[in-house]
Amino acid sequence: MTLTKDKAGALIFLMFSICYGYQAYYIPLYPGEEYEVFTSQTMPKVYALLAILISVLALMMAVLKDSEQAPSEKNEPFNIKGWGQCAALLLLMLFYGATLEPLGFVLSTIIFLNIGYLIMGERRIKRLLLASVPVVVVFWLVITKLLGIYLAAGNIWDFLG
Amino acid sequence: MNADILIGLQTALSFDNLLIVTMGCFVGTFIGMLPGLGPITAIALMIPITYGIDPSSGMILMAGVYYGAIFGGSTSSILINAPGVAGTVATSFDGYPMAQKGQAGKALALAAYASFAGGTIAAVFLLVAAPILSTVSLSFQSPDYFALLVLGLTAVAAFSSQGNFLKSIMMTLFGLMLSTVGTDEASGVERFTFGSIDLLDGISFLLIAMSMFALSEALIQVVAAAKEKGKAAQASTNVGSLKLSMAEVKEVAPTVARSSVLGFFVGVLPGAGATIASFLAYGFERNIASAKEKLKFGKGSLRGLAAPETANNAACSGSFVPLLTLGIPGSGTTAVMLGALLTYGIQPGPRLFIDNPEVFWSVIISMYVGNIVLLFINLPLIPYIARLLNLPKQLLTPLILFFSLIGVYLVSFNTFDIFMMAGFAVIAIGLRLLNFSMSPLILGFILGGMLEQNLRRAMTLNDGDVSFLWDRPITLSILVITVMVLLLPLISALKKPKNTEKDTPQVSEI
Questions:
Q1: B239: which residues sit within 8 A by CB, 6+ positions away?
Q2: Whether B418 and A113 lie within 8 Å, measured CB to CB
């Protein structure tokens, strides 16, 4: 029996629902709230129960479907380059989140965009700079001057003196 | 009411709002044209901007982007056979063959006229239907709202675009579960925050919309990029004449009229929307065509192109009916709009019509304006806009990521949100790979709060007795419809487990 997309999806959701339902029992209640007809735990418990039922049903359907016909999903060759880029961009997003406040908006965004372009395969220095610096500066001007939203300067400069 | 319409007219036709709707249509067309990016992404990217302007202008901007995105989707369907939006897949059946015959300009013009006609006729229906429905829904009570919300959530799953009922229900439940994160509004108790201060306010809907749609769509495109390189290169070719002959107009006029009506009513149904409307209209036209005409379908038939184009735009207008009158969105796109309205502090529903007539009417009137903008400004510019399709992807993707991340950050000023977005983007990519659709999730997430609130109120008022479910005829009838909607696909799924499902992760949902 192979693990098809349907089965994997249903199994993952089943596990998630069980964890969610388990956590729902630990939602704190105020003294006396347990006598109320509707508490903060009610909906989470209902959702968890429904989700468990539905995922078990989906799992059964997927197994039934599997036994009746051979799995027809074609195994596409793993696109290493594409997934590599995708993973690198996700890491870059985390990096952006970590640098946005220490370095400030302008610097961190210029770095984010340039590394992003590099990950996507752009190598021409002129293009890299043209597609990042003006975009960031214009965006910064619009946000701070036009819309009047305050963007804090990076706090790393305080430490550097 | 006439005074209210005048206020709406005044708001919609003010210089600022005209500028906003024009800009919205342009941006929408551009984003909708990019394969894989749909109206939800386009609207989500606009939300941070709408926070800076007043609610009417914000809604007008989003409505303009919505139309623009659908039109943009048609453009890429016709020019490069790569529908960016599920609602325009049927457009490519006859639109692309026309483009291959060198009639791309004619196909684009017909698509624009059909969209215009569909949108306009539907907007007239909306003008008549919305106030009537609003008046009726004023008598609704908590149990009725609860029943309606359940109907909305199940209908979305039942009509899910990928045809997989159980998976859509799972996604709806996932969305409902996510909506319970944060402080419980009624009791003040923390739920699923795991002691984190950042989760006390719950997860913002903008964050979910951006990461589940904009981020994951952009990242999935990175993986799929290699396949589309060749296609995009063809987009700059000459589109040819944009003119339609009188005989051609006569040929498609009845089709346009039929598809508008069909599209509008399908759009009004919760959960159905533009995709189903366009396929239904296409199928309907093919069925009633003469044997000779039938052969032309799929090979560049004018009627085959006009039908889905008219219907998808009419359905877009139709989907505003449940949103504006009942406060219950029927599609992913209108759900995102509802989320935006709620952050403005405006609760759509029957009271909207009374409390904020300027929002209600200006949105409806700006739909006409949006359609006019698309026809008279966007269409002549299409050959130039099409060139934007050739923008280097290596520059575009990081920019989309940047706008999504900063859009959310500028609302919360909390970098925790950026980390959370990366996490949700990973979850969304995984779900897309497993053929789950995202629309039910966003709908469940946005409606979760309302569902709990109404059920809590109804249960508390009835002292825990569930008889409120059948005490009122309205509640009972809505619930009976819900059960029917729920059972039909379940039975058909049980009957036909062999149902082959389409693996279409690259088409954006509506």
A1: B79, B99, B104, B105, B108, B382, B383, B386
A2: no
| DSSP sequence for B175-237 | HHHHHT-EE-TTT--EES-TT-GGGTT---HHHHHIIIIIIHHHHHHHHHHHHHHHHHHGGGS
The answer to whether B59 and B323 have CB atoms below 8 angstroms apart is no
pLDDT of residue B71: 84
Q: What percent of chain B has pLDDT over 70?
A: 90
Residue A46 identity (one-letter amino acid):
V
For chain A positions 74-113, those within 8 Å of chain B (CB to CB) are: 79, 81-83, 85-86, 89-90, 92-94, 96-98, 100-101, 109, 112-113
Using an 8 Å Cβ cutoff, are A52 and B170 in contact?
no
Q: How many angstroms separate the CA atoms of A111 and B334, rounded?
A: 36
- What ipTM was reported for this prediction? 0.91
CB–CB of B98/B305 below 8 Å?
yes
Distance from C-alpha of B55 to C-alpha of B64, rounded to nearest angstrom: 14
Burial B20-59 (b: 16+ CB within 10 A, else e): bbbbbbbbbbbbbbbbbbbbbbbbbbbbbbbbebebbbbb
Task: Say which amino acid occupies B30.
Answer: F
Cα separation, B372 vs B385, whole angstroms: 18
CA gap A10, A53 in Å, rounded: 11
Q: What is the pLDDT of residue B500?
A: 44
Q: Is B394 exposed, middle or buried (0-12, 13-18, 19+ CB in 10 A)?
A: buried
In the chain, the amino acid numbered A103 is L
Under DSSP, the state recorded for B37 is -
- Confidence at B503, pLDDT banded by 50, 70, 90: very low
A13 interfacial to chain B (CB closer than 8 Å): yes
Within 8 A by CB and 6+ apart from B299, the residues are B94, B97
